[in-house]
């Protein structure tokens, strides 16, 4: 009986840690995919490749779980940052908005404005990292 109680207590302590590790791994995978998409966008901009930018934007929006999860975002964030889910959601949605804006500017031939929209994408990423990742 004592062994069962000890096992139950150990499981209760270790299970949340295991789930957090899985959540952290999922978040890191998503962030890595977003980083790769941003690199693709930047290369597309540097080499005047509209297709490269478009591919990068598509990959970014697919990897942007922050915007895709909506109300479920609260469960995606680290335990000590769940209260900031509205901030994360807003910035995640802005990433998609500015990425779309970048494509529209490129289609119009407004390259300077497309670069500015890319800067807005990066700013939204950075804002989330400052608050959610605790860099401030």
Helix percent reads over 70%
The parts where pLDDT drops under 50 for at least 5 residues are 10-22
Q: Span between N and C termini?
A: 49 Å
Beta-strand content estimate: under 5%
- Work out the radius of gyration: 19 Å
CATH architecture: Up-down Bundle
Secondary-structure element pattern, one letter each = HHHHHH
Description:
The chain has 136 residues and is mainly α. It has a single domain, classed as Four Helix Bundle (Hemerythrin (Met), subunit A), CATH 1.20.120. It contains six helices and no strands. The chain has helices spanning 2-46, 50-63, 65-68, 73-76, 85-108, 111-132. Mean pLDDT is 83; it is low at 10-22.
What would the keywords be for this entry?
136 residues; 0% strand; mainly alpha; Four Helix Bundle (Hemerythrin (Met), subunit A)
Topology:
Layout: H1 2-46, H2 50-63, H3 65-68, H4 73-76, H5 85-108, H6 111-132
Helix pairs in contact: 1-2, 1-6, 2-5, 5-6
Overview in brief:
The protein is mostly helical. The chain has six helices and no strands.
């Amino acid at each position: 009986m004592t062994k069962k109680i000890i096992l139950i207590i150990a499981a209760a302590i270790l299970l949340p840690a295991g789930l957090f590790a899985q959540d952290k791994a999922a978040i890191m995978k998503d962030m890595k995919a977003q980083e790769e998409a941003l690199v693709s966008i930047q290369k597309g901009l540097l080499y005047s490749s509209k297709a490269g930018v478009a591919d990068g934007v598509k990959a970014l929006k697919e990897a942007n779980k922050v915007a895709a999860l909506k109300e479920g975002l609260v469960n995606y964030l680290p335990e000590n940052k769940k209260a900031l889910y509205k901030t994360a959601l807003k910035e995640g949605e802005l990433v998609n908005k500015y990425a779309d804006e970048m494509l529209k500017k490129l289609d119009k031939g407004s390259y300077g404005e497309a670069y500015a929209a890319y800067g807005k994408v990066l700013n939204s990423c950075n804002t989330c990292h400052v608050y959610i990742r605790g860099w401030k």
